[in-house]
Amino acid sequence: MHKKTVHEIRDLLRRKEISSVELTKIALERINSIDDRLGAFISVYGEQALEAAKDVDRKIASGEELPDLAGIPTALKDNMNMKGTKTTCASRMLENFVSPYDAGVTERLKENGAVIIGKTNMDEFAMGSSNETSYFKKVRNPYDLERVPGGSSGGSAAAVASGEVYYSLGSDTGGSIRQPAAMCGVVGLKPTYGRVSRYGLVAFASSLDQIGPFTKDVEDCAIVLNAISGKDERDSTSADVKVEDFTKYLNRDIRGMRIGMPVEFFGEGISEDVRKIIIDAVEVFKSQGAEVKEISLPMSRYALEVYYILASSEASSNLARFDGIRYGYRAESYSDAVDIYTKSRSQGFGDEVKRRIMLGTYALSAGYYDAYYKKALQIRTLIINEFKEAYKNVDIILSPTSPTTAFKLGEKINDPLSMYLSDIYTVPVNIAGIPAISIPAGLSNGLPVGLQLMGNYFEEGTLLKAAHAFERATEHHRIRPSI
Amino acid sequence: MSVSIKDVEYVAKLARLEFSEKEKVKFTEELNSILKYVEKLSEVDTSGVEPAIGAYPMYNALREDEISPSLDREEILKNAPDKQDGYFKVPKVID
Amino acid sequence: MDFEVIIGLEVHAELSTNTKIYCGCTTEFGGEQNTHCCPVCLGLPGSLPVLNKKVVDYAIKAGLALNCDINRLTHMARKNYFYPDTPKNYQITQDETPLCRDGYIEIETEGGLKKIGIQRIHIEEDAGKNVHMEDSSYVDYNRAGVPLIEIVSKPDMRSPKEARMYLEKLKAILQYTGVSDVKMEEGSLRCDANISIRPEGSNEFGTKVEVKNMNSFRAVERALEYEAKRQMEAYERGEKIIQETRRWDEGRGETVTMRSKEEAHDYRYFPEPDMIYLSVDDEWIESIRKSLPELPDARRRRYINEFGLPEYDSEILTSSKKLADFFEECVNEGGRPKEISNWIMGEILRTLKDRSMEIEDIKFAPGHLVKLVSLVDKGTISGTIAKKVFKDMFETGEDPEKIVKEKGLVQVSDEGAIRELINKVLDENPQSVADFKAGKTKAMGFIVGQVMKASKGKANPQIVNKILTEELNKR
């Protein structure tokens, strides 16, 4: 049962072949049996989930017509607030923080009858690409427990890949949905900036963060996107764009679709096995009638640098509120108010968080603003313009999601720069604010490789159309890890 | 540009963080290697380029001046490390 | 040596909106601690700010009233600093693009009308409140997120008196527009000053000192007088003036160095990434311009031209919108402008000041004042009695006619009765009559006083004078 997709489960529920309570129990048992090895969950709310499931079952029994996601177990990355439960951001700082309110996406899922089973593990405050910076425990890759699941939404990716839940939500600031989706062999979508409300998502880098779904296939992705998209008056940056039914992009012909392959995304640093699988994927698109052409996005070579300045600067300010006064960790001994701040923050944050706060504080400090922050914003303009220009000639842009497959635990944790490089293909998308999806493209040495498709602003539909066409022509999305 | 231990101490103070001497050395090295990496940005000619505040320009998210309910004080203070008589409590602050 | 004093003021005014600037919590003053808070104004993780449209309306209104240009495209900014009353440890304010700039206020100085420039007006959020106790501080976030405008003047004031006049005019204008309560006691108007001195004739600015903690206009003037003197004396002693922040100590009547902050200010301003551009078009600005009331300067000129009031009366009457409104209502009810003005500037303002009350606290209606004046005009009561009636009316808010009737204060104009009274007084005071006859005209005043006293103030003074002259001549 745990290998099934959301749309399969939905149909079973509608045909009353299984109940939501049964599904929830299966999910809880699955978590119980594998999560001490996998480490995907920080908290599990079994009783609450069963209550929600019972509620859905009652409605099904009474013949009520229910949304697609009703009764299906899911999980939220632990940086999204759910009223009355902890939001830890995998940090000692928020170990005991209980949220008094629901995030926008949490409300949406509840309205859709979702059974939220728990909160997933992540890199501390979403800063990391391997899930090793979590204060609580590491998440492991369900394909190889000695390897990382990617990050920062590693828990959400691993939970879906291993069938603990049928779908989950993650957040993506520089690749934090797509990179772990690629490494765990699932579908991960980062919507257009503003498509999904950030209200209640603990901010890492406000101008880059976006929530999106992890699913087993593209149809599921469209279903979840339907549920979480749309304007939220509580988020000034949420876009007032009409939400379509994304499932209408499934089962569509892609003949004549123009696909661009940027040379900069196939250069130095890409591992040979990844390149080979992506080239095979390109052939699949061609065989479906798409036109594939080489393009160039030279400014994207600066995206990672721009990203580290912008993301760290915004983070240095966003994380200032964690000071031990109103909530969160407070150091046990201190001499005065300033000392509360300094000691609580120094003890409450891990090294990677401190590193980024330091970089961001430096980049914004007197005398350096123009050279770093302002410069990065200007290059952001150039990167945006370059993508806009490219979309005059192509419908989607294709690349690997990550230069390598999942690496070994501990392999890069002591070398920040080499860790940062694993986001090199995902970061330009956040800088531009465009949507991108990572879909399974096959295994290399038993490890999943992700294919990234990038679309123009609010063209999630085009991405889903291309991704679904690829899926129909291949079997990669049916592969499940053996955990 | 490269940073010294003194710079790291200044930035740490601004960010309300403190480090051991050993950590200061480590953070100085790491910051320097990241800064050296991002130095590549200076290659790009950005004269006359407008900074992009946000992914694309958006205008006027405004709310009407209508009261919505506040949280119960119990909820507000639930997560407070120290509180008294409905207040958050901190060691004496000098203005 | 002669010095020139250079002063610039930064004024924070709380806007009178119903809700906070970035969330829907009430701005009501005086609620129980930490009851007007939500995830947004508490800075809870994940919360996001959404700008209150009324705040923009009010700031533009203030900007137009202060002759500013309105910035068509602005963006909010974060100002980063750690302080317990600041929930996010940054303040959402405006930096490079204030909503209004380049305005001015006119003040009446001895040298004539003077323009004091306004550099900028920007919108921002207020902080919470730290309550300091013996060994701890207690934080209340009710005020966190209350909308403010900060009005930054140019360094155009040349004396503490000018600074005070600027503040009075600014307060009047803000009050007229209705965007703020402008109550310094409740903290809805706050003022910090920058002051420096330079030798007369020099073009360079001296080192400026910031002065804080002035809680009234009088305090601003006194603090600046003290500070100017302190700087001049230091200069003459050859001491260097240090750039610093000083605090006005009201009790000791001096400014004292504030404990210097632990590090230099490095606020790391950057565009607030949780918010988007604010675009204000001409239509929006014009609709606000149309809603502007008549402002103090225009009203003052109208009082001079339309009512023929002296400059002095007009200035005082228009210094507060409510005072001017009260005056005009009296005139609309048929009162004669100068007479009404005399009453307001005399009895009314004096009584209000004695009781530390404001014009809006007055119990009687403007029409009652007009009636009171007409009772005197008609000879029903004397001017002296009118003052007594006013006191009653001020206490109770009752109709003056009713007061006069109930207390039997109607003026006596019956010549026979007055003549009888006068002859009685003259009989009782032969010495005064003799003095008058001997040419001591002063004695006349004494006799009139005695007559009025005998009539309990009710005798009509004109008739008393007329008959007294007749009767004295007879003797």
Question: Could you explain how this protein is built, in words?
Answer:
Chain A: It catalyses: L-glutamyl-tRNA(Gln) + L-glutamine + ATP + H2O = L-glutaminyl-tRNA(Gln) + L-glutamate + ADP + phosphate + H(+). The complex is a heterotrimer of chains A (483), B (95) and C (475). Chain A is built from 15 helices and 11 strands. By secondary structure, chain A is of the alpha/beta class. Chain A has a domain at 6-254: Amidase signature (AS) enzymes, CATH 3.90.1300.10. In chain A, strand 7 (258-262), helix 8 and strand 8 (291-295) form a beta-alpha-beta unit. Chain B has a domain at 5-42. Chain B has 3 helices and 3 strands; from the N terminus they run ααβαββ. Chain C folds into 3 domains: 3-286, no CATH class; 293-406, no CATH class; 415-474, Arc Repressor Mutant, subunit A. In chain C, 41% of the residues lie in helices and 21% in strands. Chain C contains 15 helices and 17 strands. The termini of chain C are far apart. At the A-B interface, helix 9, helix 10, helix 11 and helix 12 of A face helix 1, helix 2, helix 3 and strand 3 of B.
Radius of gyration of chain B over all CA atoms, rounded: 23 Å
Strand order of the largest sheet of chain B: 2-3
The portion of residues assigned to helices of chain B is: 25-40%
Provide the CATH top-level class of the domain at 6-254 in chain A.
Alpha Beta
Low-confidence stretches of chain B: none
| Strand residues, percent of chain A | 5-15%
- Helix and strand sequence of chain A: HHEHEHEHEHEEHEHEHHHHEHHEEH
Please supply descriptive tags for the structure shown above.
heterotrimer; B: 95 residues; alpha+beta; two-stranded antiparallel sheet; 36% helix; 9% strand; flat; C: 475 residues; Arc Repressor Mutant, subunit A; nine-stranded mixed sheet; three-stranded antiparallel sheet; 41% helix; 21% strand; transferase (chain A); ATP binding (chain A); protein biosynthesis (chain A)
